[in-house]
Amino acid sequence: MTTNPAPLRIFLLEDHSDTLAYMIMYLEQLGHTVLPASSIEEALEALPGADCDVLISDVGLPDGFGWDLLPRLQLRSPLYAIAMSGFNRAVDIAQSKAAGFHHHLGKPFNIHELNMVLEEARKFLKSSEKESSGSTVPEDK
Length: 141
Description:
By secondary structure, this protein is of the alpha/beta class. It has one domain (9-131): Response regulator (Rossmann fold, 3-Layer(aba) Sandwich), CATH 3.40.50. Helix content is 40%, strand content 21%. The chain has 5 helices and 7 strands, in the order βαβαβββαβαβα. A 5-stranded parallel β-sheet has the order 2-1-3-6-7, sandwiched between helices. The longest helix has 23 residues, at 111-133. Residues 135-141 have low confidence and may be disordered.
């Protein structure tokens, strides 16, 4: 018997309306809560109070680059940040990492890739919770 993974609160920043609609539909079908935005300004306004677990941000946006978003945010809790872009050269992936993104999904990506990255996000968030609560698991002797 398999169990569904815990749902996530995902902030999705994407300016292409069809991609945004498809991703919302897919992520909600998995049980996640999705909060959408289509510009950096919308994200800067909504994301700090959204209490999200994951940010999925397009890189090329009408009002700038998604890479500029993370340094401008002041968030209260850890956030697993995923860049997604058609810019997929090594320099672009390095730029995503330098901007604070945990992962860079190259467009087009398949659902399996997205699911794997969301699983990485769950592990990151779980380890962040343990660190912030100071809980440790006793070692077996």
